[in-house]
């Protein structure tokens, strides 16, 4: 057997790949970190793109997603000689709104620093960021305040620091090309970086944490927090240790652009580290990238320490001075957090699952609140709980089928509320509501549709009695079967509803049929 064949055989026996020793080979059983007796220790660095019109230190447009490359640049964000930065006050206000919601301590003076690194997407070869006295310190996020929070009772994540910094550019690597392309549109855009303590203990907790950060940023209107547009990006720091022992060697996985990627990267890295520790191999402190297609991490570089960045105070920017009065003003302008909104929904009678679904999705929340407001103007409006069930099940199902999002409800909210009120008043039936929903969602007037098509339910007692008697007279065999077997009443009721084109009130029809069937068989003859 040659050496390569021997290596393959050894790899097969150990569950490793000979070419990629950190990757589980096909068919090998993956040993989980928990099963191996290790505890996961996870911290996150989250970058939120702030919702400002211009960049952090110049007047170029900040939101450049989808625009032509290098279209929004100037001497300041390109770092050209002689260009001087000026701090964007709107970015500071949004950052303060967010750190206040986290319960952070805000220093009276918060300076900017230059963080040096040489990379093609850093036009100045340094990044303007913050080191000492960042804009927010010592906050926390309670996982119980997030979606499905009941499962995380008592679990909170400390937030040691939040700081302002400018974004870098973006590198693009054409397939098989011997070069890379750089787009500086994003360079200089305002970011809020939030650094968590290593308080998370599983990939699922990390995902829940990020979902809560996104919901909070969107609710406070601080950031669009859209991972698919690069407006929420996360780096994960992960290590393993035996419970009660000191922290293990930390590995960072960079630039994960979806919650699914964060969860998958953590699962993969925890398995990789567990295998190495079980085999007696060291964990290198390094920065790794994430291969989405191969679902594995790979080495980028050895991990830098803060000294490697050669921080120094930025000589062109004065420190931010935050007065107590300004901080009070910023906090007063903040909107309720998703956790507070969920509490309001629960108080209105919504089920926890529906309250979570709506409160932690900014588009769903805006649409549902618009529907609630419109429904409040109708005397026969359904309860908030009934409206939420209709909103999440019927309307949500239709939107998913049509591949539309919750914002499609905003414009027709008044018509949808009227449709729900017509159903609540008994003017139209449930099947009619379902049939009209697509048209009302498209903007049609429900009252006009009901009038034009004669869809109002028959509620007049005399008219219902005539209809029931006519159907019974036309189907004596079904009537006889219903008298002999009470379950056959449904067949007779179906014929009445068909004859009324679904406009007869089902409860009233059922009551009349039961009354007729219980009376003398000949008592209904001759009615007109």
Descriptors:
single chain; 528 residues; alpha+beta; eight-stranded mixed sheet; three-stranded antiparallel sheet; 15 strands; disordered N terminus; disordered C terminus
Describe this structure in words.
This protein has 16 helices and 15 strands. The protein is an alpha+beta fold and 528 residues long. It has four domains: 1-30, no CATH class; 31-320, no CATH class; 338-453, no CATH class; 461-518, Arc Repressor Mutant, subunit A. It has an eight-stranded mixed β-sheet with strand order 5-6-9-1-10-11-12-13, covered by helices on one side. A three-stranded antiparallel β-sheet has the order 4-3-14, with no helix packed on it. It is elongated, with a radius of gyration of 32 Å. 34% of the residues are buried. Mean pLDDT is 86; it is low at 1-31 and 523-528.
In short:
The protein is an alpha+beta fold. The chain has 4 domains: 1-30, no CATH class; 31-320, no CATH class; 338-453, no CATH class; 461-518, Orthogonal Bundle (Arc Repressor Mutant, subunit A), CATH 1.10.10. The chain contains 16 helices and 15 strands.
SSE layout:
Layout: H1 3-14, E1 39-49, H2 89-101, E2 109-110, E3 113-116, E4 126-129, E5 136-142, E6 156-166, E7 170-172, E8 181-183, E9 190-195, H3 203-219, E10 232-241, E11 251-256, H4 259-278, E12 286-291, E13 296-302, E14 312-313, E15 320-321, H5 324-332, H6 338-347, H7 352-359, H8 362-375, H9 384-401, H10 413-424, H11 430-441, H12 446-453, H13 461-474, H14 476-484, H15 489-499, H16 506-518
Helix pairs in contact: 3-4, 6-7, 8-10, 10-11, 13-15, 13-16, 14-15, 15-16
